[in-house]
Design brief:
The complex is a heterodimer of chains A (531) and B (380). Chain A is α+β, with helices and mostly antiparallel strands. Chain A has three domains: 40-166, no CATH class; 196-310, no CATH class; 329-507, no CATH class. In chain A, helix 11 (326-355) packs antiparallel against helix 15 (429-443), helix 11 packs across helix 16 (448-486) and helix 13 crosses helix 15 (429-443). Chain A has helices at residues 6-22, 36-39, 49-60, 93-110, 121-129, 141-149, 196-204, 238-249, 259-266, 283-291, 326-355, 363-373, 380-400, 406-423, 429-443, 448-486, 515-521, 525-528; strands spanning 66-75, 78-87, 135-138, 153-157, 163-166, 212-219, 225-232, 278-280, 295-299, 305-308, 488-489, 492-493. Chain B is an alpha/beta fold. Chain B has helices at 4-19, 54-57, 77-83, 104-109, 112-120, 138-143, 152-165, 175-183, 237-247, 305-331, 338-345, 347-353, 357-360, and strands at 30-40, 45-52, 67-74, 91-93, 99-103, 129-133, 190-198, 216-227, 230-234, 252-259, 262-280, 283-296, 365-375. In chain B, strands 1, 2, 3, 4, 5, 6, 7, 8 and 9 form a nine-stranded mixed sheet that branches. In chain B, strands 10-11-12-13 form a four-stranded mixed sheet. In chain B, helix 5 (112-120) crosses helix 8. The interface between A and B is medium-sized, with 34 and 31 residues.
């Protein structure tokens, strides 16, 4: 990502000036905050609490939820001033009151000896007062601010250039629910939620292995989002891990809201509609990928994990395939592959047949179609386009609308398309059947993104069929195949194990053979599919 | 090469251009011609087409007829066919024709010059049935309605298929077979025929489809024998059965034997017949190796089996002999393609008789070998 446009920067500065100017205490800091993101990063703290607080206020502006409380501690040997800073919405007040402040005040009061003059205030506090488990410290404003914004409490101590960072994040996350996009009947039924620590926990619970590695990055210059790279050392190819890390370090972006933002910057810079980084909301799917030698990336705030590299076949595989017998799984997979092709080609085939190659139809089918098409006012290609588009509208509205309207929508859709349009003679019933089959087929695809890609490609093939019949469809297929062959995901051929052909990969592509064979083979994805 | 991919894509696309038969013709933009008939006429030929009325087949059933017949006379089929456009609302598209019906008068006159239209016209396929209208005009056959099938031509086609497999009267013939038989010297064409049973005039009406007892029915009739491209006559029903036995198309049929002065029927299935040739004592001899499974309708003792088998074989032999006899002596037409068997078995000999095969054919001796298995001799 290139630098943000200059105009934007000046505008932000103006805004910044506005609210800093209003605060008369911090007027001297206005010059410093010319480049607010950069200026404070490595700036050391002041020894004076008031100066530090003033500076934090200057950086944060007059946020109403920024709580700054300074306290005088006292015991038999003397007095000590401290200040606690946190952001009220994202920090847990109970933790701060009952555990942090309680601990500090009690400890200070009950301390049995005075502050040793050789020791610094910081060491005294660190050793005797802050008897809490998750306490870190820092002497830089940069880390302080990020920690503060993460929901931790900052404890400043008068006379020390270091401050304490105490974990007090509020746990107001969504409960772990069943997956919504990648549903399965058998197997674990947990999905990620928006909390990074919970998501990591879900994965760690399934991998009890000391070779499991988690590395954290902070991405997004403005959002400071935590991004985590996971792999199993010794299983994942080192080159692959390095490549992922390099690409993550190279990400230069303002803010990250979802893992798809990261996915965009991570993937190969190729023009494509296909997803070359797998995204899943199922922890068991991520774990299975990790054991295959893939690398997983989690983004704070996103319930979807990224898995790289992704192969095309992954889009048609479901983790549930491994939970049943091979024959059944192979059959289920076969139906999915058939569904994929039907979902892609059926409207195009229909158009080609009635428009160009009606000779191919058996006579009874032809007469049946001709009979239905007899009084339809639209030409065939327009008819199917309208119905296809109407179905996509239905699907999109079904995704976006409030759930309370669901029944009325399905009612309207079924009545309008299924009954009235056909009865009114606007559309032939066969076209409704064709589009319905297509839609059902595309819904069997386990990967949500592949499903959407399919929807778009269907129009592409429709166009090809309108222009050139089966000839056009064949050309379009060649173009699609060529495109798929050119795709890479972290250097891996997107279409492997088909091109380049890999015999051992066939055991787990179109069919699924015995699971012990697959396990014996699946040591490492890099070893299996050479790039 | 820098743009290798583009070149390859272009190349593939270019090659595909020659493979496609791509022409925009929407299903609803043409009228499907489902059957065609040709008849003798003063101007040359009379072409009648049975065109499908799509409206009737749609979701809203209608009282109007599912097909309509247009007829036009002209010097050639093509001319007549083009002139038919005067009657039709849409383009008449003959790709989908299911059967071609040849009027018997025209068949007697010769069919070669007419058949050529269907071979060479760009809009025809080659797998439709060709039948002769027995003692009728083809146009009349096309005008007859059918009950079990909405579209009469489809009914005719299905009847032919059914009659070929069961009993053995019909014979499905596609146009490429006709071409083979017409242009190959010495083989003679045989075609199935279709006949009207009952009142011709009433068969055209809607009422004929609304009763359990239509006054008119179309029926698969006996085999028509051609010499060169002209029809020379008909086989009788028994001769037709014998012909079908030799021609090896029957799946299920029936035979009769006399047993204790009682007529018994014998069910026949899985028949096959192989034609082989040998020169025996310098006389051309065709051997017909016939094989079948039969099931009998009564219980027989084990010592009666041989006698029974003999009687059954005799009955088949009778049918086949009748067919061979009428072909050799009455019409002198090699409808069984014996000459091909001779050619395959002894090409040198065939070369020597090729020129005067007409004189040789009636003198060919025919031997019969039977391999009959009797199934189900006991009560179940």
């Amino acid at each position: 990502m290139a630098k943000p446009p200059k105009k934007k920067e000046t505008k932000e500065n103006e805004q910044h000036k506005k609210y800093t100017q209003s605060n008369s205490d911090t007027e001297k800091l206005v010059q410093m905050s010319e480049e607010p993101e950069v200026s404070y990063l490595n700036k050391p703290l002041y020894e004076n609490i008031d100066d530090t607080i003033a500076y934090i206020k200057a950086i944060q502006g007059n946020c109403f939820d920024l709580v700054i409380r300074s306290i005088h501690l006292e015991n038999a040997w003397g007095k000590q001033r401290i200040a606690i800073i946190y952001i009220s919405g994202i920090s847990d007040k109970n933790i701060i009151d009952e555990s942090i402040l309680h601990t500090i005040t009690n400890n200070y009061r009950k301390i049995s000896k005075p502050l040793n003059t050789n020791d610094s205030v910081f060491d005294f506090f660190n050793n005797f007062i802050m008897t809490l488990s998750s306490v870190r410290n820092t002497d830089e404003f940069g880390e302080l601010i990020i920690t503060l914004l993460n929901g931790d409490a900052i404890i400043l101590v008068e006379g020390s250039q270091k401050c304490f960072l105490v974990d007090s994040k509020i746990k107001n996350e969504r409960a772990i629910e069943a997956p919504k996009a990648q549903v399965s009947v058998k197997g674990g039924n947990e999905a990620f939620n928006e909390s990074l620590s919970t998501n990591i926990c879900l994965i760690r619970r399934r991998i009890r292995n000391s070779h499991f590695r988690i590395e954290k990055y902070i991405l997004g210059k403005k959002s400071n989002t935590s991004v985590v790279v996971m792999y199993i050392k010794g299983v994942a190819d080192e080159g692959l891990v390095e490549e992922v890390k390099t690409r993550i370090e190279g990400i230069d972006v303002e803010n990250i809201l979802d893992s798809e933002y990261v996915s965009f910057y991570l993937r190969e810079k190729q023009w494509t509609m296909f997803q070359t980084i797998f995204s899943t909301e199922r922890p068991d799917s991520v774990v299975a990928s990790l054991f295959e030698g893939r690398v997983a990336i989690l983004v704070d705030g996103s319930p979807f994990a990224l898995v790289a590299p992704m192969l095309f076949v992954q889009g048609l595989q479901s983790l549930e395939d491994y939970y049943m017998k091979g024959y059944i799984a192979s059959f289920v997979r076969f139906t999915r592959i058939v569904a994929f092709f039907l979902g892609l080609y059926l409207p195009a085939i229909y158009i080609s047949l009635i428009y160009f190659h009606s000779e191919l139809l058996p006579i009874n089918l032809l007469l049946s179609i001709a009979g239905q098409r007899y009084a339809i006012p639209f030409p065939g290609f327009l008819e199917i386009l309208l119905i296809m588009f109407f179905f996509d509208l239905l699907r999109e509205s079904g995704t976006r609308m409030p759930t309370s309207l669901g029944s009325s929508l399905s009612f309207l859709g079924a009545i309008i398309i299924g009954e009235s349009a056909v009865q009114a003679g606007l559309f032939s019933s066969i076209i409704v059947i064709v589009v319905t089959i297509t839609a059902i087929c595309s819904l069997t695809i386990p990967d949500y993104f592949l499903n959407l890609t399919l929807t778009v490609l269907r129009y592409f093939f429709w166009g090809a069929a309108v222009i050139g019949g089966f000839y056009g469809v064949t050309l379009a297929s060649i173009a699609l195949l060529t495109h798929l062959c050119s795709l890479r995901s972290f250097g891996f051929n997107y279409l492997s194990p088909y091109t380049p052909f890999c015999a051992s990969g066939m055991q787990d592509s179109l069919i699924r053979t015995r699971i012990d064979k697959i396990f014996r083979r699946k040591k490492n994805i890099s070893a299996e599919y050479p790039h | 090469m820098k743009h290798r991919k583009i070149y390859i894509l272009f190349l593939i696309g270019f090659v595909l251009l020659f493979l496609s038969g791509c022409r925009k013709l929407d299903v609803s933009d043409y009228t499907t011609v489902i059957a065609m008939g040709i008849d003798k006429s003063e101007k040359g030929v009379k072409v009648s087409v049975q065109a499908v009325n799509d409206f009737v087949l749609g979701s809203k059933p209608s009282q109007s007829s599912p097909v309509v017949v247009f007829a036009e006379e002209a010097a050639s089929i093509y001319e007549a066919f083009v002139k038919l456009s005067n009657y039709s609302v849409n383009k008449l598209y003959i790709f989908h024709i299911q059967c071609l019906i040849i009027g018997s008068e025209l068949a007697q006159e010769g069919i070669e010059k007419h058949i050529k239209f269907f071979v060479f016209h760009w809009e025809t396929q080659h797998n439709f049935n060709i039948v002769v209208a027995q003692d009728e005009k083809a146009e009349d056959i096309l005008k007859m309605r059918s009950v079990l099938e909405n579209i009469p031509a489809v009914a005719v086609e299905s009847k032919l298929e059914n009659a070929e497999k069961i009993y053995g009267m019909g014979k499905i013939t596609f146009i490429d077979e006709i071409v083979t038989y017409l242009y190959q010297p010495n083989t003679c064409l045989s075609l199935s025929s279709i006949a009207i049973v009952g009142d011709k005039e009433k068969g055209k009406d809607n009422e004929s489809t609304q009763t359990t007892d239509p006054k008119m029915r179309l029926k698969v009739s006996t085999i028509a024998v051609f010499k060169n491209d002209k029809m020379v006559g008909w086989l009788s029903e028994e001769e037709s059965l014998g012909f079908s036995h030799i021609f090896d198309k029957i799946e299920i049929s029936v035979l009769h034997i006399m047993h204790n002065n009682e007529k018994l029927y014998i069910g026949v299935k899985n028949t096959s017949c192989k034609i082989s040739f040998a020169l025996i004592n310098n006389e051309p001899t065709i051997t017909l190796k016939h094989k079948m499974n039969v099931s009998v309708s009564e219980q027989f003792g084990p010592n009666e089996m041989d006698m029974l088998m003999e009687k059954i074989n005799e009955d088949v032999k009778r049918l086949m002999e009748m067919a061979v006899d009428v072909a050799q002596n009455k019409y002198n037409a090699d409808i069984f393609a014996f000459c091909e068997a001779i050619h395959r078995a002894n090409p040198k000999y065939y070369q020597s008789i090729k020129e005067n095969y007409d004189a040789i054919f009636p003198t060919i001796k025919v031997k019969y070998q039977f391999n009959t298995t009797i199934d189900r001799t006991r009560l179940k």
